[in-house]
Write a structure and sequence with these properties.
By secondary structure, the protein is α/β, with parallel strands linked by helices. It has 19 helices and twelve strands. It folds into two domains: 208 residues, 3-Layer(aba) Sandwich (D-Maltodextrin-Binding Protein, domain 2); 212 residues, Periplasmic binding protein-like II (D-Maltodextrin-Binding Protein, domain 2, 3-Layer(aba) Sandwich). Strands 5, 6, 8, 9, 10 and 12 form a six-stranded mixed sheet that branches. Strands 3-2-4-11 form a four-stranded mixed sheet. The protein is globular, with a radius of gyration of 22 Å.
Length: 455
């Protein structure tokens, strides 16, 4: 079988949307419901909605506010079963579909993670919805709506995109005599800086390799490649792509052996290492755009009340590009529009819940609501409003400035190499970095599992 190459066209277009969103002119206001679907006529209907807008997600509060506004406007109710996104959440969603317990509306990944319920015909395509509700998602640029890899059909209406980059505790850097990394930051400079930070008595990298090694896995592999070939999946650990994956994991092992991760990185939880970062004990945190909210929340005396923000404390945090290596520039980030709202067949087959589900998605993806969620990330709106920086906190503004220098956004290859395929290198990361399992063997094991899924 020839090497499988999966393109990153959507992610590149998502970058275009993200980089132009701040400067585009706002369109004339439209109804928040988006179209004449009779939202107020479906009063009294309760729909079940599951999203990832929970926990420390930046948009958890925005989601709650939007739900309350939709409920007040329509008279409908939402039974919310949202939870923080992780592998457990993904498994729960898939299980719900298998047992007939799926929600009416689901905000979920539009990549391979959704293949099971897409293949089972459990969600309704945007085209089918438009056959009855022509204005559905009409405010979106269709070119930026991702098609399912399962069948090439578009199901999920996106709200906000994402990026992954390196957060920085500048207070720790100052104590260690290290300058804030910039757009031309290299891997060699990063290693030298980590050495200085460690010598100053701080932990260079806040990461729980035994719990959430995902981001380091992604970027260290990306550093062996370039945006044009990052979404290739190897046929074996010994082919060109496989060797790149092995070298990426070996770079993580090298960082571990140098003592740049926390002493308890193999047993600590992600929450524990995140606390090291916000408590000024660690310098670098590799994570996604959603982590902005968690950092800001850690700088508030009341995590749920933005008015309690400690401006001086949040000023100690910044965000920059992951150090570049080889053909990957530091300004080449992982990102895109990887999630969106699905309407399930379960809701579609019930006339009342169908109307309410369409109304809900249109409200949550309207020109008025999307910018509140997109903030410093990307969206698929045709007419994204101007951004008023005075409405954002200091870290959000820094993130916007960082995004203005991005040269490309590429999707996460782990979203294609998903499920059990990742167990040997994700769950097996402690054994890899300790030298108990060779990186090449772990990569090959994952590839073998992946090949089995293609049969």
């Amino acid at each position: 079988m020839k090497s499988r190459k999966l393109t990153a066209i959507l992610a590149v277009m998502a970058m275009t949307a993200g980089l132009t969103a701040c400067g585009s002119q706002a369109a004339a206001p439209q109804s928040a419901a988006g179209s004449d679907t009779g939202a107020t006529e479906a009063g009294g209907v309760e729909i079940t909605v599951t999203t990832t807008f929970a926990g420390e997600d930046t948009n958890a509060k925005n989601y709650k506010d939007a739900v309350a506004a939709w409920e007040q406007e329509t008279g409908n109710k939402v039974s919310d079963t949202s939870a923080t996104s992780d592998e457990t959440f993904k498994t729960r969603v898939i299980t719900d579909f298998e047992t007939g317990s799926e929600p009416d509306v689901l905000f979920f990944f539009n990549g391979a993670d959704a293949n099971d319920f897409v293949n089972a015909g459990k969600v309704v395509s945007i085209e089918d919805i438009r056959a009855e509700f022509p204005e559905y998602a009409s405010n979106m640029n269709d070119d930026l709506i991702a098609a399912s890899p399962a069948d090439g059909v578009k199901y999920a209406v996106p709200v906000n995109g994402f990026w992954e980059a390196m957060f920085v505790n500048t207070k720790v850097l100052e104590e260690a005599g290290v300058s804030m990394p910039g757009a031309d930051y290299t891997w060699d400079q990063f290693l030298a800086d980590c050495g200085k930070i460690k010598d100053a008595g701080y932990t260079p990298i806040a990461a729980a390799l035994g719990n959430i090694p995902h981001y380091w896995w992604e970027f260290c592999i990306f550093n062996q490649q370039s945006p044009k070939d990052h979404l290739n999946i190897p046929e074996s650990a010994g082919d060109a792509v496989g060797e790149q994956w092995v070298k990426g994991l070996e770079d993580i092992k090298d960082l571990y052996e140098k003592g740049f991760f926390p002493d308890n990185t193999l047993s600590a939880t992600d929450d524990e290492t995140f606390a090291m970062f916000t408590d000024d004990k660690a310098a670098f945190l590799l994570d996604g755009s959603w982590k902005v909210g968690g950092i800001v929340g850690a700088c508030q005396s009341d995590p749920d009340d933005p008015s309690t923000l400690d401006a001086e404390k949040v000023g100690h945090f910044d965000v920059t590009y992951f150090p570049g290596k080889g053909d990957r520039k530091a300004t080449d980030l992982v990102g895109g529009l990887s999630m969106g709202y699905y309407i399930t067949q379960k809701a579609w087959e019930d006339p009342d819940r169908k109307d309410a589900a369409v109304s809900f998605v249109e409200y949550m993806t309207s020109d008025e609501v999307v910018p509140k969620f997109a903030q410093h990330t990307a969206s698929a709106l045709k007419n994204a409003p101007k951004t008023d920086e005075s409405e954002f906190n200091a870290l959000q503004v820094k993130a916007m400035n960082m995004m203005s220098g991005v040269t490309s956004l590429t999707g996460a290859v782990q979203d294609l190499f998903n499920g059990d395929c990742r167990v040997p290198t994700f769950d097996g990361m402690p054994d890899i970095v300790e030298g108990n399992v060779a990186a090449a063997d772990a990569v090959q094991e994952g590839i073998d599992i992946y090949q089995d899924t293609l049969e």
